[in-house]
Amino acid sequence: MRDRAVVDARLSWRLLLVPRLFLAAGVIIWALLNVLMARRPPQPPRRPPSAGDPVGDALAGARPVPRHAGDPLDVTDLRWIVTVDGLEVEDEDGFNTVVGLDDAVWAYADVAADGLEDALTDQPGIDAVEHTDREVVLVRSSLALPDVHAAAVRALLDINRDPRPLPRRRPLQPAVVLAVADDVATVMSGHGFTGRPRPRLLPVAAR
Fold first, then answer.
1. What is the CA radius of gyration of the chain?
2. Mind giving me the DSSP string for 37-98?
3. Which residues contact 141 (CB under 8 A, 6 or more apart)?
4. Cα(179)–Cα(175) distance, rounded to whole angstroms?
5. Residue 96: Cβ within 10 Å count
6. In sequence order, what are the residues at sequence separation of 6 or more whose Cβ sits closer than 8 angstroms to the Cβ of residue 121?
7. What's the Cα-to-Cα distance from 41 to each of 3, 35, 77, 96, 130, rounded to whole Å?
8. Helix H or strand E segment including 128
9. Closest by CA position to 159, among listed 113, 84, 109
10. Is 204 helix (H, G, I), strand (E, B) or coil?
């Protein structure tokens, strides 16, 4: 009789514990999902492609100039020399596309010195560009990926014929200026100066 009571007590304890474990696990998963969704910026929608083959349209009639004499170029190679892929938005900069450049791109231009970043920024539908690495360019755009691909190809062809050696002077964003002012104020106060510098924020010039 006593053994039966012990077994019943163990079963009751297990029956109470299992639902509580499931409940705790559910609460943890729910909390983690909420944290991840709260930190992830919304993914901007993309427009439909503007044409059946935007890259083909960008290549039509193109006559690139080789950087080195006697180095013939096949402009159709730009389909694989320049690649485009979607990128999940992870911060306030909102870059949602990555443009990859194969080593063969150097037959067309020195993409850093010749100003690919500025040329791509000037393409319609391109909102922001950051040339983060020699062969990686981040882009923010609502264009379809084929249209971003075509824009990158057009930008490369532009600098192939008309390099832009001087980087464009872009005004700093107000948040960056204010952050610098805060750092300067901290340093100055440590040397006995009081007050805070008032940065003059100029309006951002339209492209």
1. 28
2. HHHSPPPPP-PPPSSS-HHHHHHTT--PPPSSTT----GGGHHHHEEEEE----STT---EE
3. 96, 97, 125, 126, 127, 148, 151
4. 6
5. 23
6. 128, 129, 168, 207
7. 59, 12, 35, 11, 19
8. strand 126-133
9. 109
10. coil
Q: Is the pTM of this model over 0.85?
A: no
Q: Are 49 and 144 in contact (CB under 8 A)?
A: yes
Say if CB 131 and CB 37 are below 8 A apart.
no
Phi-psi region of 90 (alpha: psi -120 to 50; beta: other; left: phi over 0): alpha
Mean pLDDT by 10 residues, the chain (207 residues): 50 55 66 59 81 96 87 92 91 87 94 94 95 92 97 97 72 58 68 61 47
Among 87, 86, 90, 96, smallest CA distance to 41 is for: 90
Q: Work out whether strand 97-101 and strand 126-133 pair parallel, antiparallel, or are unpaired.
A: unpaired
Do 140 and 125 meet the contact criterion of CB atoms below 8 Å apart?
A: no
Please answer whether residues 106 and 115 qualify as being in contact, where contact means their C-beta atoms are separated by less than 8 angstroms. no
| Cα 38–Cα 42–Cα 48 angle in degrees, nearest 5 | 160
**CA-based angle 134:101:72, to the nearest 5?**
110
